[in-house]
Design brief:
four-stranded antiparallel sheet, alpha+beta, about 140 residues, rod-shaped, minor pseudopilin epsh fold
Amino acid sequence: MRTRRSAFSLVEYLMGMMVIAMLMGVVLLAFGGVLNHVTLENEAYSMKRYLEYARDYAGTYQVKVMFQLTPSGYEILPEGGASIGHRLLPKSVVMLAKPFYFTPNLTPSTGVTLTLAVGPRSKKVVVDPSTGRIRIAP
């Protein structure tokens, strides 16, 4: 007596693989938004640290320090000196800001709001002109 084994056919196997691939695509799209949010948060905190460094450098060495955008990121330049800090931004991050100075009394030359954006999300890094305090606004 011959027994017949049941097994999946090639078509059934390929259909199963296709369903798994589609589910993985949905999961990756869901995590894409989370990754953009994490990138934006990281860049905002990194920029805050760079601004605090520029502010402290201006106070310690009693020089004006300029924060300016470059085509690929931003840099910190003391007056009459070479760059003391440069950061490249990921290609997905867009930054809107004008150059400004920190003066030796630890305050910026003007009130400044730097905007970082990844897709539809954005974060603002705000420098208070009266106190020189740097904070991240939602």
